[in-house]
Amino acid sequence: MASMLVIASGNAGKVREFGHLLAALHLEIRPQPEGLEVEETGATFAENARLKAAAVARATGCWALADDSGLSVSALGGAPGVHSARYATTDEARIGRLLRELAGAGDRSAQFTAALAVADPSGAIRLEVEGICPGVILEETRGRGGFGYDPVFFVPETGLTYAEMDKELKGRIGHRGKAFALLAPQLQTLLSR
Q: Half-sphere exposure of residue 147, counting CA atoms within 13 Å on the CB side?
């Protein structure tokens, strides 16, 4: 049984979140080595997740899990998409740009997508899943929680923005939670072979 899983991220918060989401699998979770940078050149979230998982697995000789996620807005042709984190330099600036570009738009539908990929120690992709949460972009921010676009991403079925949800609710209905719900049983099977 592979007992160690390297998270293809240098973001300590993301590594902690993944550790929490995967706690039931009793794996040793480690961040990718410091200084290892993987260029995200993919055109889709899934392509970027594959690139990161394969590169980190090859660099460490361990199983690796990578994610790529972001916001896609219908009226903007899917933007910011794979450029969600690079849409501007701060969360506030990203939200500001998004709201300016959507000014006057009739269709404010959007979705958050999380693509997860797992690579074996050789870098071969062995598992891929995707979680999607549909929603609507509000005209102004609501809520103090979360990060990124959370204060303007409204989920009609809950009546809340991501920033207004508690961790349990966001974890259940959010894009990353949905992706992990698909990943966990398959990952357990894969690693116990």
A: 6
Per-residue pLDDT of 106-163, as tens digits, reads: 999 999 999 999 999 999 999 999 999 999 999 999 999 888 999 999 999 999 999 9
Q: Which domains does the chain have, with CATH numbers?
A: 4-191 (3.90.950.10)
Q: Are 153 and 71 in contact (CB under 8 A)?
A: yes
The pLDDT assigned to 151 comes to: 97
CA atoms within 13 A on the CB side of 109: 5
Cite the active site residues: 68
And the tokens for 149? 């676009």
Give ∠ CA 142-182-174 in degrees, rounded to 5.
Answer: 0
Contact 91, 148 (CB under 8 A): yes
**pTM recorded for the entire structure:** 0.91
Rg (CA), the chain: 17
Between CA 71 and CA 80 the distance in angstroms is: 6
**pLDDT at position 1:** 42
Q: Are 78 and 72 in contact (CB under 8 A)?
A: yes
Spatial contact of 59 and 75, defined as CB atoms under 8 Å apart:
no
